[in-house]
Amino acid sequence: MTTLSKLETWPTLPLEAWSETYATLHMWTQIVGKIRLAQSPWMNHSWQTTLYVTTRGLTTSPIPYGNLTFEIDFNFIDHRLTVQSSDGRTAHIALKAQSVAAFYTTLMEEMSKLNLHVNINRKPNEVPEPIRFDQDETHCAYDAEYANRFWRILVQADRIFKEFRGRFIGKCSPVHFFWGAPDLAVTRFSGRRAPEHPGGIPNLPDRVTREAYSHEVSSCGFWPGGGPIPYAAFYSYAYPEPAGFAAASVLPDAAFYSSEFREFILPYEVVRQSDSPDDSLLEFLQTTYEAAANLAKWDRSSLEIDRNTKGTV
Predict the structure, then answer these.
(1) 104, 210, 227, 279: which could join 133 in a potential S-S bond, CB 3.0 to 4.6 Å?
(2) Cβ distance 254 to 266 under 8 Å?
(3) 244: left (phi over 0), alpha (psi -120 to 50) or beta
(4) Cis check: omega of the bond before 252, within 30 degrees of 0
């Protein structure tokens, strides 16, 4: 069995080195995510819209289309996008430096050849100055090395988030990639209703945000960074935020509360350079969750599993 070194498993991802690729890839994932959204039955908290980490990239998972299904897969090893239909037909698109408009046009043309005709809202979500996908000639970078590094980090985050998710037996989201931010996230629920969310996320209908936060949550994830946090980071927040949350003691020591984002932040580099990245990240996820759950008086005894218990068959 081949064992990768820690540096290979947890590669560097300086935002300034791949910011243009990141912006372009963000729009590409929005296009693919909106295709899933347009064809999928509604699910609570918009879970029908997300992508999932695979051993080669990201996938929509099967999308219904009449009595068929199809799926779209980003492959960040071979750097291509694949559309596969359950009738056996397949299309491929090279992932390379090209504009968002060119990517959109090519993808829709290839899907049409497979008799997959899907109309999407071509306005991006959750970005301050959106450019319609079919008109976006601004975002056109693709650095294959950094796209691969980003995916490799998602693989590690996905693996550890799933271990963390397994400790909870209450309502919990899948580990999934939200293309709006974009971020990889997993969310735990107390089971209690939450006060109406104020909304206000750029270019996202408030009704979507309010439904997403209809119940109390403790949520964590990985984000490549931007704005006041100009580096890749793990995050954890609670909604509604209980009194005292911002001052809670969490681990590891490098974690801090961002008053602007109203969430705890742990720089990716801290995890990457720690003696045990798995343990450092799990420590952050666990202590920030405990801060949220304890301060909000969640019924933890009915929501959590004994971490020493392993399921057997």
Answers:
(1) 104
(2) yes
(3) left
(4) yes
Give CA angle at 272 (271, 274), nearest 5°. Answer: 65
Instruction: State the Cα–Cα distance between residues 95 and 117, nearest whole angstrom.
Output: 22
Please count the other Cβ atoms lying within 10 Å of the Cβ belonging to residue 115. Answer: 13
Q: In whole angstroms, give the CA distance from residue 149 to residue 6.
A: 13
Cα–Cα distance for residue pair 149/204, rounded to 1 Å: 29
pTM, two decimals, is: 0.95
* Contact criterion met (CB below 8 Å) for 186 and 160: no
Positive/negative CA dihedral, 145, 59, 233, 24: positive
Q: Which amino acid, residue 191?
A: G
Distance CA 91, CA 153 (A): 27
Read off the tokens for 108.
């829709």
Q: Between vectors from CA 45 to CA 42 and to CA 49, what angle results, nearest 5°?
A: 55
Query: Sign of the C-alpha dihedral, residues 260, 261, 264, 268?
Result: negative
Sequence-ordered alpha helix ranges (H) in the chain: 6-9, 15-39, 100-113, 144-165, 206-212, 268-273, 277-295, 300-303
CA–CA separation, 78 and 95 (whole Å): 9
Tokens at 6, concatenated: 């820690």
Mean pLDDT, consecutive 10-residue stretches, the chain (313 aa), reads 68 98 98 98 97 98 98 98 98 98 98 98 96 98 98 98 98 98 98 97 96 98 96 98 98 98 98 98 98 98 82 59
- How many Cα atoms occupy the beta-carbon half-sphere of 22 within 13 Å? 20
Domains of the chain, by residue range, sit at 15-135, 144-303
